Amino acid sequence: MTEERWQQLTNWPLIVAALLFIVAYSWQVIAELHGTPRLVTESVILVTWLIFLVDYLVRLALAPHKAKWFVRHLFDLVIVVVPALRPLRLLRVFTLVHVLQRTAGAALRSRIMIYGASAAFMLIYLAALTVLEAERLSPDANITSFGDAIWWAFVTITTVGYGDYTPVTVPGRFVAVGLMVGGVAVVGTVTATLSSWVLERAAAGHEEEQPATKAQVNAVATQLHTLVERYGAPAARPRTRDGEASDPPIG
Q1: Cα 208 vs. chain centroid, distance in angstroms?
Q2: Which end of the chain has fewer CB atoms surrounding its CB within 10 Å, N or C?
Q3: Neighbouring C-beta atoms of residue 85, cutoff 10 Å
Q4: pTM to 2 decimals?
């Protein structure tokens, strides 16, 4: 068993586990469950945590260089330690989306847009759930409903910062910091990709005005070199006394 084979076998089970977690966690926070329903959701959350923990430990055991693997997979460790981040595993679904475009650049840009937009909405939803759970029991809290939490998450991730809803607890403020940092990265990526698409559309039909890249120049030089090797260099045309090339004699 190799790590690659293990990932192939556990990819969809982990996605299903992440989906079960977000359903159970959403139900528990939004509905303020107590008694048996809360026990059910807590059990589902515990089972999904065990699944992610086992996956992490098995992948670490299968890694040939465990120290390098540990350093390169710190985010996987964070997902195991911080329960609210487990639904981010669902983003792996969007890496499997095949977008049909005429060019490789357009296909890559489309996948980045899909992945970035999905990550932004998921961050907003998870941050809203987490901050609501952290703030609801505080006597000074002003985020007391899921609607308030969603509004606060949208305002925060877009860096608008109206200030009408603000977290007052320490866990809530940690969630706010994480949302601001992650939001700047995700929204910035989506904005840059969208700007690149707009510039490409604006330049459509004016390809002759675009400067050649170094790769294109090298490709042309390589083709010319190949032609010279295959057919030989063209014969030099005789020149007149004025230094201009004369036409070859006819006949």
Answers
A1: 34
A2: C
A3: 20
A4: 0.69
